[in-house]
Amino acid sequence: MKKIIYKTILSLTLIFLLLVSYLSIIGLETDRLNNQIVKKISGLNQNIEVELKEIKLILEPFNLKVKAKTLGSTLKSKNGEINIESIKTYISLRSLLSNNFSLSNLEISTKSVEIKKIIAFVREINRDPKLFILENFIQKGYLIADINLEFDENGQIKDNYQIKGFIRDGRVELFAKYKFDKVNLIFDINKKLTKLEEIDFKYNSLDLFFKNLDIRN
Fold it and tell me: What pLDDT does residue 101 have?
């Protein structure tokens, strides 16, 4: 009898460990969270549409959390679309099992996108005239960004947002007199501060480099 109990406990333990290992390494695909992610992103502005792929859930047993990640999504507005590398969020294991959860954060990583396309997209959301002027000054360039957002209990974005990324091969012309070419830099933006690092560009054929520049927002 003891041997049977021992074998049963051993078998159940082995099955449990294999299941945890499978969910931690391979994960589980689902569309259960799609609606919540779409609502969070569309809630930023009603002019944004979101196309999501299936979401993969990866268990993080030591943190008692589940990472939800989807690849190859698209954000759309009237002025175009932005291809997203990935969207991630973290959910407590307890709230997921109880089916009583809401998203408290989003981590969005873009693919390489033309800067003019980004500005045109944002202009559809924010009608600030400065964006129209900026769009006309910028001739070319590409941007990749990681955007981290947290939400309060009312679903509003908290002030601790962070946007990191880099710009490559940018070109800016101001009134045909001032030309900034081959602009490359790293940026880190939060509510209070914009940090620019490794700023490398040509100004009217003059090579310039700045290690860092801080701009108070």
Answer: 67
Look at residue 152 and give its three-state secondary structure: coil
Please name the residue ranges forming H helices in 45-188.
93-97, 115-125, 129-137
**What are the structure tokens assigned to 65, written together?**
């959390």
Nearest to 157 by CA among 33, 40, 69, 54: 40
Dig out the tokens for 199 from the structure.
Answer: 């700023």
Q: Are 166 and 146 in contact (CB under 8 A)?
A: no
Among 174, 166, 175, residue whose Cα is nearest residue 199: 166
Length, in residues, of the chain: 217
Which helix (H) or strand (E) is 196 found in, with range?
A: strand 193-203
Supply the DSSP string of 37-60, one letter for each residue: HHHHHHHH-TT-EEE---EEEEEE
Contact 196, 213 (CB under 8 A): yes
How many CA atoms lie within 13 Å of 76's alpha carbon, on the beta-carbon side? 8
Integer-rounded Cα Rg, in Å, for the chain is 23
Measured CA distances, 46 to 42, 51, 141, 149 (Å): 6, 14, 28, 18
Global pTM? Answer: 0.80
What pLDDT, in 10s, does the model give residues 176-190? 778 889 999 999 988
Asked whether residue 90 carries a pLDDT value surpassing 70, the answer given is yes
